[in-house]
Amino acid sequence: MRDLTVVVTAHDETVVCGPTMLAADAAVAAARERGYTVEAIIALDNATEATSRYFGQDRFAHWDRRVYAEGDLGRVRNRILPETEGRFIAFLDADDMFSENWLAEGIARLDAAERAGERAIAHPELNVFFDGQSSVLVNIDQTSPLFSPYYLYFRNYYDSLCMAPREAHLESPYVSRDIPNGLSFQDFQFSIETMSRGWEHVVVRDTIIFKRRRDFSLVTESSSRKSIVRALPEMAIDRVRDLGRRA
Length: 247
Prior knowledge:
- There is one protein chain.
- The protein is α/β, with parallel strands linked by helices.
- 28% of the residues lie in helices and 26% in strands.
- It has helices at residues 17-33, 49-55, 73-80, 102-115, 166-171, 186-196, 218-224; strands at 2-10, 38-45, 64-68, 86-93, 97-98, 120-131, 135-138, 163-165, 200-213.
- The longest helix has 17 residues, at 17-33.
- It is globular, with a radius of gyration of 17 Å.
């Protein structure tokens, strides 16, 4: 088993993947320089012909390229998980980027949590949004005094581009998106379900995820349709106060 599996998921992206893959290669190289073993996978899910041609280039031959037909971000992540070798899993969308130190520091943080007997899921300290918008989101630890489970009635604290032990994904697989019926935000539900099952969401200092905001994306479509998270027992009014609380 390797220390980490990095999965880049691609659907209809082409030239914007250039910076994505440069950033991914730099982060993988930095992790390997620290002595970690890394499996690198490109998952082409219902990829357009142009996307398939783009990732078919020889310059991506050092990545393991796999083809799927799930047509859903959550389902393709669930599908690929049993086929990976990493103790930890890190996803990257093909139009986003992460800082060069994210993988190495994320592994180190999760290793430290394991040694302390903690069940942790790691997030970068900053989410920097660009292209369709320009803003910065500062993530907080689940144990921060600023954390409140009631906030989850309105927004998700954490982005889907986390690093998690494979057991977290096996315990809390992603649900399928149903945007026409107003049900979306699979990462939001993942956050809630993992918290309720004893996983602690932690921040890795001085690391960044760069999120591209396009005019049309799954996020913008979900928001425009007023999509919501499915009704979850953890969010019941008499239970939500305990969500995310350490035992």
